[in-house]
Amino acid sequence: MAVTIAVAVTDGDWFNQLRRQPELTEVNFWSPSPKSFRALEPGELFLFKLHYPINMIVGGGIFASSTIMPLSLAWDAFGVANDVTGLAEMRTRILRYRKMDPATAGPVEIGCRILTQPFFLPESRWFPPPVSWARNLVSFRGYGTDEADGRALWESVQDAMAPAIESTGFSEPVRYGEPTLIRPRLGQGAFRLVVTDLYGRRCAITKERTLPALEAAHIRPYADGGEHSASNGILMRRDIHSLFDQGYVTVSQDHRFEVSGRIREEFENGRHYYELHGSEISLPANKSQQPDAAALRWHNESRYLG
Q1: Which residue from 259, 263, 245, 247 is spatially nearest to 205, judged by alpha carbons?
Q2: Structure pTM?
Q3: Do residues 291 and 245 touch, judged by C-beta distance below 8 A?
Q4: Omega cis (within 30) before 107
Q5: In 3-state terms, what secondary structure has residue 109?
Q6: How far apart are CA 74 and CA 120, in angstroms?
Q7: Any residues with CB less than 8 A from the CB of 140 and at least 6 apart, and which?
Q8: Residue 50: helix, strand or coil by DSSP?
Q9: Phi, psi (5° rounding) for residue 243?
């Protein structure tokens, strides 16, 4: 099958700071402007190319998703995987790129391109972009593997990654074989942003849409064998998420919100939550991304207090 590979320009500071963090499972290749990014499908390759005069491809990752988020939420989701040491530094850098006065600038939104399984090549394995790469490109370009340059790029990546192919999500049968999508393994930050967008940035139970008050809840917690996957998540208002994690509320396998009598017994309260009891939750349009039945059953049987 033909896939697309994006080659994006970055600076040496971004690359060097992130490659010093060997435990990274995801990075946010952010854009200072709130621009959407539709060049890739989840599972396609996103490669990093350093500025001239170096002009070499030095690493990359598996594209998971793209969205536009308030700066504060992007920082909360990814922290140092944004390639900054703190929120203040990130805001300063973005305002400088956008030529905005920090004294008068209000809330800032940025473009987020979420990459999983990031890899940073040693200098001995850096390689040049395709010959068709234009010197004046300052953003990115996509290459289809059904074309000569795209196919050559695919094979160059496989060759460069050979020593670390297993740890970065590729497998030996893929090498020099047909280009293919690679399943993104979402991290906590990617999980949060993907679930937030899937539910239309509204709490699935209350329809609350104040983003700082919303959280991506794992149906089956990661510590208990759950995955950072869309079908293991539901977007909830923060208080409902807390009750869900502690078992005071649940979502049935037919997607109805249920409230335990223990709230009334233990706290002599809960009227607001009982008013929501039995209501249908909102769901993503794509059935494959709706709550997983097995995960819901696990929560109903293993966590819900009944």
Answers
A1: 259
A2: 0.84
A3: no
A4: no
A5: strand
A6: 22
A7: 6, 7, 8, 9, 39
A8: strand
A9: -65, -35
**Strand boundaries in 15-56, DSSP class E:** 26-28, 45-50
β-pairing verdict for 109-120 and 57-70? antiparallel
The packing angle between helices 71-78 and 188-198, to 10°, is 140
CA contacts within 13 A on the Cβ side of 255: 14
Note whether 9 and 137 are within 8 A (CB): yes
Q: Which CA distances in Å does 213 have to 41, 186, 251, 265, 282?
A: 29, 22, 20, 27, 17
Pairing of β 4-10 and β 45-50: parallel
**Which residue in the block uniquely carries the two structure tokens 């850098």?**
93
Residue at 209: amino acid letter: R
Each residue's pLDDT tens digit in the chain (306 positions)?
Answer: 789 999 999 878 778 888 888 788 899 998 888 888 899 999 999 999 998 888 899 999 999 999 999 999 999 999 888 888 888 888 888 888 888 888 888 888 999 999 998 999 999 999 999 988 887 777 889 999 999 999 999 988 888 876 544 444 444 433 435 677 777 788 999 999 999 999 999 999 999 999 999 999 999 998 899 999 999 999 999 999 999 999 999 999 999 999 999 999 998 888 999 999 999 999 999 999 999 999 999 999 999 998
Q: CB-hemisphere CA count at 13 Å for 227?
A: 12
Dist. CA 16–CA 45, nearest whole Å: 20
Bridge partners of 147, per DSSP, are none
Hey, CA dihedral for 130, 59, 124, 85, is it positive or negative? Answer: positive
**Which tokens belong to 240?**
């409902």
Q: Which residues pair with 31 in a beta bridge?
A: 111
